[in-house]
Design brief:
about 280 residues, about 10% helix, 8-stranded antiparallel sheet, mainly beta
């Protein structure tokens, strides 16, 4: 199966998991050739071409082009691989957000494989479309093979500001690896708050999942963010060679507070780093 088609099929499989509450958050997957609301002379393809300059439609309904523009990785210069020499997109994920009190549009383009990294390559782009559309920033947010917005896609931390939540993942026969970047927009540029790694297993005797939810806690100038991973083990009830573990569930939480001195979010514990280290022993 072609990589582009494989990613499209995987997206369809993941949509119920990713978008249970997405409708309320206005995440959409518009046809790239369609016009922006309120901008009948501007299409999403016009915005996409600010990231992939020669992008155009082919006879199969996919959009193809060359390499995207140069961009940094959200984790910094030591992370990420090279962009693909050719790009192919069935669509893009689109999300309206607030940043610094201004209306902004975020678009996420998953390009699939990187030629020199197993992480893939995915561009998160920020646009000002209040007048003539402008590309304000673009970063590579891929930290695994397939990248999406993660439910709820955005999180309001003030009347004027939303955070973005993406996820990168890959699966094998009985394991699922998920990395979740939590991203802020400041001065019309993306900034990483934290990267949270979780790990799922689905074996004969049991299933173990690590689901994450985010909750804002009122505060000024920005709300605190409580992230909670529920680590749950559920015996399958099947007859297997290995004895099943007992059913269990526990929560691991980290709260991020805005630090006025450093002008950034800081976390109150290293619980997620310890969870990641424990998970690595089960790979």
């Amino acid at each position: 199966m072609r990589p582009t088609l494989l990613r499209f099929v995987l997206a369809l499989v993941l949509l119920p998991f990713l978008w249970t509450a997405a409708g309320a958050q206005a995440v959409s997957f518009p046809e790239l050739g369609s016009a922006l609301p309120g901008h009948q002379d501007v299409t999403y393809l016009d915005l996409a071409r600010m990231v992939i300059p020669d992008l155009s439609a082919d006879s199969d309904g996919f959009y193809k082009g060359g390499s995207p523009i140069d961009m940094r990785h959200i984790e910094g210069p030591d992370s990420g691989g090279s962009p693909p020499e050719a790009s192919a997109l069935p669509n893009a994920a689109v999300l309206d957000i607030k940043a610094g009190g201004r209306d902004r549009l975020a678009m996420l383009f998953d390009f699939g494989d990187s030629p020199d990294s197993a992480e893939g390559y995915a561009a998160l782009a920020l646009y000002d479309i209040t007048a003539k559309p402008r590309l304000l920033d673009a970063v590579n947010v891929a930290v695994d093979r397939s990248t999406y917005f993660r439910d709820p896609g955005k999180l309001s931390v003030s009347p004027n500001d939303d955070l973005l939540i993406t996820m990168s993942t890959h699966f094998n026969s009985n394991q699922g690896y998920v990395s979740t970047p939590l991203i802020m927009v400041r001065n019309d540029r993306f900034e990483l708050i934290d990267m949270i790694h979780t790990f799922d297993e689905n074996l004969c005797a049991y299933k173990r999942t690590q689901d994450i939810v985010f909750r804002p806690i009122a505060g000024k100038p920005y709300a605190a963010i409580k992230a909670t991973v529920t680590d749950a083990t559920m015996p399958s009830g099947e007859s297997c060679d290995e004895a099943p573990p007992k059913a269990s569930s526990h929560k691991i939480s980290v709260t991020y507070h805005w630090d006025k001195k450093t002008s950034r979010y800081v976390k109150d514990s290293d619980a997620f780093e310890r969870l990641s280290a424990e998970n690595a022993k089960r790979f």
